[in-house]
């Protein structure tokens, strides 16, 4: 593909928006035939697509909002982007994500364009909303500022008190709802590909919002999966079929969500100091039914046992090696909210059960040192602690 300059991005973005407006005028031209798509059954959808609410910011607006991209307002930095806190003319706190000047290759620009094209058309309380973009003097995305930072920053900051159980449960349920929306509630199926605690942001009420759509993929209704190379994502969250074969579909996100649930329950990081993944540590405990051994010891027993059982059962289904035997996110929500823990329903055939523990965790560990992940892994969108935000805002 030819190298895309900023002017080309502007033109392509304009075409994307025009195309969406045309779809709004003719709802029957949608890419997905909702009447024939099983994925959309029992999912409330508006009869017509919602028009994007983002706007194009001028460079002057975001320059002034961030005080000239002052280092005092820098709240996150990754392999190819930086995030600045800002204050709009209307007094709204915003986050400005900037493609760094050193990241001038085609792939980084493509990631930005992907994020605009994906998140610009989603509307759900558990998915971060795009306020707008700017394509003058660089590439910028503008979001509402998430004052509490990411789940990872709150869960793993040793200087903060442990997150209480009810907040953890609220985060788990809200994130599941947001992911279910991406898979089944959008006009086009969206596979996020990088679900993890540092990509789930929290508002003042601890309502979670899924963020960072740079790796996201549209999945047309007639397709069963994408085949992707090179493999990008985060070590410890990658589903076996993606890690080994590049196969991506909704179940890829389901696996990562299972790891996210285990992280919420245990307070452990997805990969520990010995390079053991969280899901490989948890599987034997789940298999033996010793659920309470999963719980973050910092909670000192202060948790709701029925809720714990539901989250743990959901996690055990999500992290299955065989994607066929993983639930959809709708089914995950049934477990988490309705207590649907019918073990007979989810019992795998004996031969599948034996293959479940054939050694993917060992393979993952062997490949870990040479496995190449996206440079975005170093720091995710606004992955910053409350302390650093409050210090810089004072």
From TrEMBL:
Region called Disordered, residue ranges: 371-394
SMART domains: S_TKc (SM00220)
Tagged with keyword Ligase: no
Sample GO molecular function, one term: protein serine/threonine kinase activity
Nuclease listed as a keyword: no
Residue ranges of domain Protein kinase in the record: 69-337
InterPro entries listed in its UniProt record: Kinase-like_dom_sf, Prot_kinase_dom, Protein_kinase_ATP_BS, RBK1/2/STUNTED, Ser/Thr_kinase_AS
A Pfam family the protein falls into: Pkinase
UniProt entry keywords in alphabetical sequence: ATP-binding, Kinase, Nucleotide-binding, Serine/threonine-protein kinase, Transferase
Binding, ATP: 97
Family the UniProt entry places it in: Belongs to the protein kinase superfamily.
Alphabetized PANTHER family for the sequence: OS04G0654600 PROTEIN, OS08G0249100 PROTEIN
Protein name listed in UniProt: Pkinase domain-containing protein
């Amino acid at each position: 593909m030819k190298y895309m300059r900023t002017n080309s991005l502007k033109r392509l973005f304009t075409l994307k928006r025009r195309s969406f407006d045309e779809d709004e005028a003719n709802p029957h031209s949608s890419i997905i035939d909702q009447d024939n798509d099983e994925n959309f059954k029992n999912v409330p959808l508006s009869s017509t697509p919602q028009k994007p609410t983002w706007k194009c910011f001028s460079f002057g607006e975001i320059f002034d909002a961030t005080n000239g991209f002052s280092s005092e307002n820098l709240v996150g930095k990754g392999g190819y982007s930086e995030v600045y806190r800002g204050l709009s003319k209307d007094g709204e706190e915003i986050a400005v994500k900037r493609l760094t000047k050193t990241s001038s290759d085609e792939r980084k620009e493509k990631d930005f364009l992907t994020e605009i094209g994906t998140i610009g058309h989603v509307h759900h309380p558990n998915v971060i909303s795009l306020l707008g973009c700017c394509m003058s003097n660089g590439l910028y995305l503008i979001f509402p500022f998430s004052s509490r930072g990411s789940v990872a920053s709150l869960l793993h900051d040793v200087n903060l008190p442990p997150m209480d159980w009810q907040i953890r449960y609220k985060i788990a349920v809200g994130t599941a709802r947001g992911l279910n929306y991406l898979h089944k509630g959008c006009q086009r199926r969206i596979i996020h590909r990088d679900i993890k605690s540092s990509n789930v942001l929290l508002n003042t009420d601890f309502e979670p919002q899924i963020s960072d759509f740079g790796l996201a993929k549209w999945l047309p209704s007639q397709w069963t999966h994408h085949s992707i190379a090179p493999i990008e994502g985060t070590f410890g969250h990658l589903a076996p079929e993606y890690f080994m074969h590049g196969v991506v579909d909704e179940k890829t996100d389901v696996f990562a969500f299972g790891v996210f649930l285990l992280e919420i329950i245990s307070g452990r990081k997805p990969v520990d100091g010995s390079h053991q993944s969280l899901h490989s540590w948890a599987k034997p405990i789940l298999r033996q039914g010793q659920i309470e051994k999963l719980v973050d010891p910092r909670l000192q027993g202060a948790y709701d046992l029925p809720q714990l059982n539901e989250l743990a059962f959901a996690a055990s289904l999500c992290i299955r090696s065989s994607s066929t035997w993983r639930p959809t996110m709708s089914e995950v929500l049934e477990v988490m909210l309705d207590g649907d823990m019918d073990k007979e329903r989810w019992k795998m055939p004996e031969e599948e059960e034996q293959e479940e523990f054939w050694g993917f965790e060992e393979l993952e560990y062997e490949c870990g040192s040479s496995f190449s992940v996206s440079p975005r892994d170093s720091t995710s969108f606004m992955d910053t602690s409350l302390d650093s935000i409050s210090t810089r805002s004072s």
